[in-house]
Design brief:
The chain is mostly beta strands. About 0% of the residues lie in helices and about 50% in strands. The protein has strands at about 5, 10, 20-25, 35-40, 45-50, 55-60, 65-70, 75-80, 90-95, 100-105, 105-110. Strands 2, 4, 5, 6, 9, 10 and 11 form a seven-stranded mixed sheet that branches. A hairpin with a 5-residue loop joins strand 5 (about 45-50) and strand 6.
């Protein structure tokens, strides 16, 4: 059974940073493409960043230059480093295994002064 467990969310002031982590179990992590999505209140879930098995990375325009996705195959973990956070980044962030279409439970990020 595949499990994705996210952590690292919380409350941060505008301009601050957070690092989200997603650790996978029950799967061969290094053969799957991974991604982070987010869903803000009243909005549809959107892709934030993705990383392929060959470490090709893609980002939403709204986070380019501020967010970085990193995968550590040895730890079966994908990270999302978020810098210069803005109030509009407030959302529940979800980890996604794109090949298996599995999702984590989500972690809440709130950017507010």
């Amino acid at each position: 059974q595949v499990q994705l467990v996210e952590s690292g969310g919380g409350l941060v002031q505008p301009g601050g940073s957070l690092r989200l982590s997603c650790t996978a179990s029950g799967t061969i992590f290094n053969i799957n493409d991974m991604a982070w999505y987010r869903q803000a209140p009243g909005k549809q879930r959107e892709l934030v960043a993705a990383v392929s098995t060959r470490n090709y990375k893609d980002y939403a325009d709204s986070v380019k230059g501020r967010f970085t996705i990193v995968r550590d195959n040895a730890k079966s973990t994908v990270y999302l480093q978020m810098n210069n956070l803005k109030p509009e980044d407030t959302a529940v962030y979800y980890c996604n295994d794109r090949d298996l279409d599995e999702w984590g439970q989500g972690t809440l990020v709130t950017v507010s002064s």
